[in-house]
Amino acid sequence: MVLKFIKREAVLCISLVAALISMIFVPPNEGYLGYIDWSVLGLLFCLMTAVQGFARVGAFSRLSGALTRRFHSTRALGALLSLLCFFLAMLVTNDVSLITIVPLTLTLFRGREKVTIRTVILETAAANLGSMATPVGNPQNLYIYSHYEMPLGEFFSVTLPPTIISLLLLAASVVFIPSERLSPAEGQDRSGSAESGGRTKFRVIIYCVVAAVCLLTVARALDWRICLGVVLSLALISDPKVLGRVDYALLGTFICFFVFVGNIAAIPEVRGFISSVVYGREMITGIVLSQVISNVPCAIMLSGFTDNAGQLLLGVDLGGLGTLIASLASLISFKLYICSEGARKGRYFAEFTVYNFALLAALFGLQTGFNMLLG
């Protein structure tokens, strides 16, 4: 039981151990409460509640099904699913985008292993790259946007150029998906029908309100505490079970890394050393460290040692490419794939690694050139 939990929530367990070790050097005190960015945690909880609410009423599966009925080629359908991951991730986060689209892909391309592997790999990269466009696209974006209090215009000026380049590279990558003919029956959504009726319509309206309140909070037009109160109230009224689907392990991971980074930063000698290493190298440091500990904890850790929010944002977003653990969303799609019938883990891992590092190298090179042009 314990081993299963550790395996399932490895990042949470690592962050907890790191926080506990740091407490040896900085014993618990009143300053610990100041380490935690409660506004980030509150808004992240609200966004996850909204997304899970839409998932509960089948909004994403209906959207996917509606878009997959008119395609007769595996390449065309794979391209559509990948683009859907790219744009959906901007609104509902990269992990939710993959949780929604990958199972559908596995169903539609059952028995076509080469098509399935390459489509899921492309979808994973699309979700990770599309999510960097907006503050709500992934947890590290939301954290950096809130922690540094970045103006929305500044945020988009950093993320939109690499997002556009990423879209072009992903579109070119579609040629790697084998083009095979699909029968009409294969282009249907077999993921199951969602509940229907007046109750569902009521819930859809409720979660639209929840999403609107969250977006107003992201735009800093509403205080996060008001947002939290509204979201909790509406969730309890419409469907209390949705609160049980929130990723509390991710929230716990944030808290543990807040404590770890706060304690490390409280030691002057350590803070000075790490700051000297990170300063001026935020993007490359974020990319490299993300390969080892994944980009969300990397963003939290490095934020304690640099004021260059833009380059750190680029580092942890591009750092989601590369290894399988660089982004938690990549692990989600991998787990979904290996549970499918006829899964070939070795081939998936090899093709995933080659494609992701090639894409990372291209984007890093282009972004470095762009940074040099801007001085």
Explain the overall architecture.
The protein is globular. The chain is mainly alpha-helical and 375 residues long. It has helices at residues 2-8, 10-25, 32-35, 38-56, 59-67, 74-92, 94-108, 113-130, 139-147, 152-173, 198-218, 224-238, 248-265, 268-278, 282-293, 295-303, 309-318, 328-338, 345-373. The longest helix is centred in the C-terminal third of the chain and has 29 residues, at 345-373. 45% of the residues are buried. It has one domain (9-373). It is built from 19 helices and no strands.
Number of strands: 0
Number of helices: 19
Structure classification: mainly alpha
| Average pLDDT over all residues | 87
Could you describe the largest sheet, including whether it forms a barrel?
none
Which value, in Å, is the CA radius of gyration? Answer: 21 Å
- CA-based shape: globular
- Binned, the helix content reads over 70%
Poorly predicted ranges: 189-195
- Oligomeric status of the shown chains? single chain
Distance between the termini: 53 Å
Q: In the residues, how many domains can be counted? A: 1
Strand content: under 5%
The secondary-structure element order is HHHHHHHHHHHHHHHHHHH
Keywords:
375 residues, mainly alpha, 19 helices, 73% helix, 0% strand
Please write out the topology.
Blueprint (H helix, E strand, L loop, with lengths): L1 H7 L1 H16 L6 H4 L2 H19 L2 H9 L6 H19 L1 H15 L4 H18 L8 H9 L4 H22 L24 H21 L5 H15 L9 H18 L2 H11 L3 H12 L1 H9 L5 H10 L9 H11 L6 H29 L2
Helix pairs in contact: 2-13, 4-11, 4-12, 6-7, 6-8, 7-8, 7-18, 8-10, 8-18, 8-19, 9-16, 9-17, 10-17, 10-19, 11-12, 13-16, 15-16, 15-17, 16-17
